[in-house]
Design goal:
The chain has 416 residues and is mainly α. Helices cover 54% and strands 7% of the residues. A 3-stranded mixed beta sheet has the order 4-3-5, with no helix packed on it. Strands 1-2 form a two-stranded antiparallel ribbon. It has a two-stranded antiparallel ribbon with strand order 6-7. The longest helix has 23 residues. This is EF-hand domain-containing protein.
Length: 416
């Protein structure tokens, strides 16, 4: 027994030393010391101290709420309507949000009544599909935040991904989408869990964004009564028309309303929304190398836009036809575009791209840097960046501190 008592005493001393050497932070040690000793106050005897084991409660204290995302800030900035205390975009607001970096809001947001919303939905349900749909609807429509995210996703989808997008909506696999499935998809895009609902209740879906409100997209896809089914061909045409409408609007914006766009205006469009460390060098290249008086047609511009929606396939093609991490020449670039999209870019467009992004004048591009710039361009400045704020730093400190504490005591209770 004496031997086992010595062993236990040695083990306790070892654990105490190990715990003290591995500093786990003032807060953790303080809580253990404060709770590790229990004072017993007895009226009939002296005060005694009893050892008391303490286990840290496995709870995570909630810190301050995370800051709103860039997409949420952009949505709130451009949304011009309020209904039931929730902000909404109109179709015009959405077009402006993907074309402009900022909006100069001269008027307050408009607070809508139910009568006005019902009138908007009738307009949307009667709208004809086409490449001017959003411009035709204008301010007679409502777009919620999750629908805004859905539309942004459509703008960056290659045509080969249209059927995949439809399959994601077609939850039960019956080759058409109803209103209920569309609402569920909005929950997935918004990364929220749907609220519990009664069985068979197809209309009682709600989110924090007020998505229980009938919106323009729902009225256009499913009719004002929500009973219409959305077929794949209709959905594909909607995606194609939306991309074409935005491309046309951007072309008109940078061509100043002309039928052709100057090459320097095309370079300005390329660098719009980008924030790379070499941006100044790109702008200098544009001023020095691109000749004046040469233009790019809308068809050439549209072909390049379709290419930017296939950047992942393009990056893979580049890896297949060139050495790893090596700059690529114009011939390799042209071939990679052909492989990725099945189409070719015009000489005007290719020459403008190379003259803008070729930093050392060797007629080659660093494809990784070029793809980074183009992703900023495609996502219109809304690419999610890693967060390096103070709250994230302290979360990391806390996580590593607790990990060190667990290693110190071997995952057991406190040795005190």
């Amino acid at each position: 027994m004496a031997t086992w008592g010595s062993v236990r005493l040695g083990l306790r001393i070892f654990l105490r030393r190990t715990w003290s050497v591995r500093r786990v932070g003032a807060a953790a040690v303080g809580s253990v010391v404060a709770g590790g000793l229990l004072l017993r106050n007895d009226h009939h005897g002296p005060r005694t101290v009893w050892p008391h084991a303490v286990c840290a409660e496995d709870t995570e204290t909630e810190g301050p709420p995370p800051p709103p995302s860039t997409r949420r800030l952009r949505f709130n900035q451009f949304a011009s309507m309020i209904y039931e205390d929730e902000p909404y975009m109109t179709a015009r607001d959405f077009l402006f949000s993907v074309m402009l970096e900022n909006v100069d809001r001269k008027l307050h947001k408009r607070v809508l009544t139910k009568k006005e919303v019902d009138k908007m939905l009738i307009t949307a349900s009667r709208a004809q599909p086409g490449k001017t749909l959003f411009r035709t609807i204008g301010d007679s429509g409502l777009i919620s935040y999750t629908e805004y995210l859905f539309l942004l996703t459509i703008l960056t989808k290659p045509h080969t991904g249209f059927h995949i997008a439809f399959k994601m909506l077609d939850i039960d696999g019956n080759e058409h989408v109803d209103k209920r499935e569309f609402q569920k998809m909005k929950y997935i895009i918004g990364k929220r869990k749907p609220k519990p609902q009664a069985e068979g209740d197809a209309e009682n879906l709600a989110t924090e964004d007020g998505d229980e409100v009938n919106t323009t997209l729902q009225a256009f896809f499913f009719g004002s009564d929500g009973r219409k089914k959305l077929q794949y061909q209709e959905f594909r045409r909607f995606m194609e028309d939306l991309q074409a409408e935005v491309h046309e609007m951007e072309f008109m914006q940078f061509s100043r309303g002309m039928d052709t766009m100057r090459r320097e205006d095309f370079a300005e469009w390329l660098l719009h929304y980008t924030d790379e460390e070499n941006n100044e060098a790109y702008w200098e290249n544009m001023r020095k190398r691109i000749p004046t008086g040469q233009s790019i047609t809308f068809e050439e511009f549209k072909a390049f836009c379709l290419f930017t929606n296939n950047l992942d396939d393009f990056a893979y093609s580049v890896k297949m036809i060139s050495e790893a991490n090596q700059p690529i020449g114009m011939a390799q670039f042209r071939r990679a575009v052909k492989i990725a999209t099945g189409n070719e870019l015009s000489d005007n467009v290719l020459d403008t791209v190379f003259k803008t992004f070729d930093l050392d004048g060797d007629n080659c591009l660093s494809h990784k840097e070029f793809i980074g710039v183009m992703k900023d361009r495609v996502l219109r400045g809304l690419r999610v960046q890693p967060q390096y704020g103070l709250p994230d730093f302290w979360k990391c400190v806390k996580r590593e501190t607790l990990k060190g504490a667990q290693e110190a005591i071997g995952g057991a209770r406190s040795p005190f």
